[in-house]
């Protein structure tokens, strides 16, 4: 379905994830983050977001454990940066699909 | 949507690796979905939070029909170790961490770990024998007290 995020009309799925990764930009990321209660994306947030996009582009099946061993943040920091489900929320902000992971 | 399930309390009562992993995945999965999770280890399940024993958990090759091997073969010395190492290799390929690291992940995610007082007394285990980051040793009553909030599910493994 279509949704206007940061003055841009984009297609999202029923959970609000962008269906087209090419639609993503930093303003969209900021607005999705606000919807998730993260009002300010810090450098740490951006580092994780960009890392997730890179990994996703490389075809990696993402998990919280991998983010924890990325060298950017440990698992505790990852949960603190993206409260309420770190991988699913960070992925939404990063404009990639929700990872199908049980870990 | 107002989410109904807010906290998950997982009781782990067994030391076989498949039971321990089932309970770890359930607790960790709840945390990664933004819920709270607590784990209560009782009877043989205490091995998962035992400093030494947690590193050497086994899959059961006897009395486990899903192994699809004759009981007598499952009883051959070394068979459990072999089956376990094969299983662990498969899990590592799926990025499933070893039990102690999995528990580290759960703690890092804000999960809580408790030991069962009665079972600890039974097996003559001391607090020092268990992981240093345990959140406490509870009686059954204290455990139920932790379930007295809205949106809680107790899962027994």
H/E element sequence of chain A: EEHHHHH
CATH top level label of chain B: Alpha Beta
Q: How large, in whole angstroms, is the Cα Rg of chain A?
A: 13 Å
Can you write the helix and strand succession of chain B as a string? EHEHHHEHEHE
Compute the separation of the termini of chain B in Å: 29 Å
What is the mean pLDDT of chain B? 93
Residue share in helix of chain A: 40-55%
- Protein structure class of chain A: mainly alpha
CATH topology of chain B: Hypothetical Protein Ychn, Chain: A
Q: Order of strands in the sheet with the most strands of chain A?
A: 1-2
Strand percentage of chain B lies at: 15-25%
Low-confidence sequence ranges of chain B: none
CATH architecture of chain B: 3-Layer(aba) Sandwich
The portion of residues forming beta strands of chain A comes to 5-15%
Number of strands of chain A: 2
Overall strand count of chain B: 5
């Amino acid at each position: 379905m279509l949704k206007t995020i940061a003055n841009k009309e984009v297609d999202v799925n029923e959970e609000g994830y962008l269906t087209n990764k090419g639609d993503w930009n930093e303003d969209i990321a900021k607005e999705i983050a606000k919807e998730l209660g993260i009002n300010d994306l810090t450098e740490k947030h951006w580092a994780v977001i960009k890392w997730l996009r890179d990994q996703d582009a490389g075809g990696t099946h993402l998990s919280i454990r991998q983010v924890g061993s990325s060298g950017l943040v440990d698992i505790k920091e990852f949960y603190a940066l993206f409260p309420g489900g770190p991988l699913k929320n960070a992925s939404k902000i990063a404009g990639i699909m929700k990872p199908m992971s049980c870990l | 949507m107002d989410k109904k399930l807010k906290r998950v309390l997982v009781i782990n009562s067994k030391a076989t690796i498949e039971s321990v992993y089932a309970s770890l995945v359930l607790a960790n999965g709840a945390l990664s979905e933004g819920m709270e999770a607590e784990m209560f280890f009782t009877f043989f399940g205490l091995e998962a939070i035992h400093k030494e024993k947690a590193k050497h958990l086994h899959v059961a090759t006897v009395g486990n029909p899903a192994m699809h091997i004759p009981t007598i073969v499952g009883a051959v010395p070394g068979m459990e170790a072999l089956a376990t190492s094969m299983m662990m290799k498969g899990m590592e390929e799926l990025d499933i961490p070893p039990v102690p690291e999995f528990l580290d992940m759960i703690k890092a995610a804000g999960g809580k770990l408790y030991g069962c007082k009665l079972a600890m007394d039974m097996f003559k285990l001391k607090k020092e024998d268990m992981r240093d980051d345990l959140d406490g040793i509870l009686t059954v009553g204290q455990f139920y007290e932790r379930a007295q909030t809205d949106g809680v599910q107790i899962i027994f493994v």
